[in-house]
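Give me the 3D structure for Sugar ABC transporter substrate-binding protein.
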Amino acid sequence: MAGHSRRSVIAGVAVAGATALVAGCSGGGEDPPAAQPLAGGGPGQNTAPGRRVVIGFSAPAADHGWLAAITNNARRQARALPDVEFKMVASGANAGAQRAALSTLIAERPDVIVVLPHDGKELNAFGVEAMRAGVPVVNLDRAFPDPAAFRLQIKGDNYGMGVAAARHIISRLRTRKVEQPVIAEIAGLDFLELTQERSRGFRDTLAAAGMSVANRRAAAFTADSGQREAAHLLQALPHLHAVWNHDDDQGVGVLAAVEAAKRGEFFMVGGAGSRQAMQTIQAGGTVLEATVTYSPSMASSAILLARLIAQDRGLADLAEFEVPRQLVLAAETVTRDNADDYLHFGF
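Predicted structure for Sugar ABC transporter substrate-binding protein (347 residues):
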């Protein structure tokens, strides 16, 4: 998908764009009935000021570039909305501490809570508690497994990231006419469901093309862990054709390990779409030639949609009265050819 289409998706979530039309089907060659006005109203309705609302927010500490962008995007978006009061609570060092802070927030009765949990399964009970107390929850990124724990769930397409990375690798290997490719994978934290989904999408897509992963290492979304695991992987595989690294922050360490080992016979696909990774792709000179997106712009969308939920409004460009229950962002492939289109979304 081109960068311009991504802008269209985000603009739709941010409630800009033309009014949608409902097209009817008819038989017998008759003209279709005229489109009826939508419940959502005309374009621009969502940007009109509404009643003042309080949006509570919690996300893990910004020890990673992507997490820092999540919090910064949420805060910046809230500040741009004159009818929103942004109330951020400390997430603590783990799921238990975040759960305690969020329970206190429930007692303060904000209009809606946006939360990126330390762990979706461990914080699921909070979501259920808040929803039962009449406080809608927007669950961001790390999913609550129980549908009763959230009003809206927004996340990236983790399985789709694996699919996109594998498709790029398959295409490049076929172009090079590599018959028995040696493919490696450097994942993130293995206990997270999102990591498992990324690996599954990667594995499934390779298998459909008759390919497989020769060696897989799990890092921890940090540059240090990426360098360590990449060094082990390079020692285990004296020759490689392609590597998928799940996360561009840990990719900084991966590239350092590649340089230290003086390896360059393979190409690499990154993950998440950091600005630094995109600029590295543009500059050339390293094994990194593409990255697949997992944009922190989802935090901005979470605030925009939380506001509409609290104000009992829907999306102006949709026929339905209410904001949808789920939003999954597309995983898109960024290369040297289209990096300029995506730099704006890099963290």
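DSSP finds eleven helices and twelve strands in the chain. Let me know if you want a second pass.
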